[in-house]
């Protein structure tokens, strides 16, 4: 049987909250076996941008990345957040290495084509088949834990701002060709909620038919839809299991003591 590997994406209010983040990193460091961490950081980037006189440009809830915004997210994602996460993991005896998709050509992407909206320097990942799995496998063999910022590149010298959920899903699918991969999306809720205003309304199992039914009814919070779409796509392409849950429960979820929302086909 293939070696197990956990791909874990962290976002939401966990990155923004010192206590939540420290607890998560302590638990992440304690996770046994091979692991990869992917992080976003849009809220922090927006806050820092505002201090620099840059208001975020959002269309339909998505960030438009012009040249100045690309400089901002590169500094915040690839620098401030990524290196702080790495340093804090090193303090917990977890030998982490901060990366973007440009490093070692791990995640090639292309600039999103302009249709009705020009999102600027936003990247769409080429394919899981293009991920540099041998490089990541070599890190695993050395006991090094990759920590990915939400940046990719186009092979022509340009960095691209890329959805962190998509990066996590892409890495999980690519690595599933060599490892038994579990993908976990961590944020500040206990899972996917039937009612965004009721923290106890967790959907513990979500299958495609039920998901479509809830989408048609407009029940699921819109911001959760890309995460769920990535989850189902990952399962269809070879990922063993996908869970969406509370970052505070990561050890319990991985070891089966708590459920979160389990995505199944």
Automatic annotation (TrEMBL):
Family: Belongs to the acetylglutamate kinase family. ArgB subfamily.
Localization annotation: Cytoplasm
PANTHER family named among the record's database cross-references: N-ACETYLGLUTAMATE SYNTHASE, N-ACETYLGLUTAMATE SYNTHASE, MITOCHONDRIAL
Primary localisation category: cytoplasm
Entry coiled-coil feature ranges: none
The organism of origin for this protein: Nibribacter ruber
Listed name of the protein: Acetylglutamate kinase
Annotated residues for binding of substrate: 41-42, 63, 161
Reactions it catalyzes: N-acetyl-L-glutamate + ATP = N-acetyl-L-glutamyl 5-phosphate + ADP
UniProt xrefs under NCBIfam families: argB
Function, as annotated: Catalyzes the ATP-dependent phosphorylation of N-acetyl-L-glutamate.
HAMAP family, alphabetized: ArgB
Top-level class of the enzyme under EC nomenclature: transferase
Boundaries of every Aspartate/glutamate/uridylate kinase domain copy: 4-244
One GO term (biological process): L-arginine biosynthetic process via ornithine
GO cellular component: cytoplasm
Key words, A-Z: Amino-acid biosynthesis, Arginine biosynthesis, ATP-binding, Cytoplasm, Kinase, Nucleotide-binding, Transferase
Site-annotated residues for Transition state stabilizer: 9, 227
Assigned EC number: 2.7.2.8
GO terms for MF: acetylglutamate kinase activity; ATP binding
Pfam families, per database record: AA_kinase
Protein origin, superkingdom: Bacteria
Gene: argB
Pathway: Amino-acid biosynthesis; L-arginine biosynthesis; N(2)-acetyl-L-ornithine from L-glutamate: step 2/4
């Amino acid at each position: 049987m293939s070696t197990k590997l956990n791909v874990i994406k962290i976002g939401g209010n966990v990155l923004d909250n010192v206590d939540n983040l420290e607890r998560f990193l302590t638990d992440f460091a304690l996770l046994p076996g091979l692991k990869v961490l992917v992080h976003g950081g849009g809220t922090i980037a927006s806050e820092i941008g505002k201090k620099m006189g840059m208001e975020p440009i959002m269309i339909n809830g998505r960030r438009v990345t012009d040249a100045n915004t690309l400089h901002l997210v590169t500094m915040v994602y690839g620098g401030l957040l990524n290196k702080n996460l790495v340093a804090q993991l090193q303090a917990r005896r977890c030998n982490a290495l901060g990366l973007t998709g440009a490093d070692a050509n791990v995640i090639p992407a292309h600039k999103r084509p302009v249709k009705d909206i020009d999102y600027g320097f936003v990247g769409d990942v080429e394919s899981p088949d293009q991920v540099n799995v041998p490089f990541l496998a070599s890190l695993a063999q050395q006991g090094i834990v990759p920590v990915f910022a939400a940046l990719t590149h186009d092979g022509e010298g340009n960095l691209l701002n890329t959805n962190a959920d998509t990066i996590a899903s892409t890495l999980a699918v690519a690595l599933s060709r060599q490892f038994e991969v579990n993908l976990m999306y961590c944020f500040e809720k206990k899972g996917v909620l039937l009612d965004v205003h009721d923290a106890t309304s967790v959907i513990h199992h979500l299958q495609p038919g039920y998901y479509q039914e809830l989408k048609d009814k407009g029940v699921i919070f819109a911001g959760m839809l890309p995460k769920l779409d990535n989850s189902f796509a990952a399962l269809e392409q070879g990922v063993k299991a996908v869970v969406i849950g509370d970052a505070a429960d990561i050890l319990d979820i991985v070891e089966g003591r708590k459920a979160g929302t389990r995505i199944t086909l």
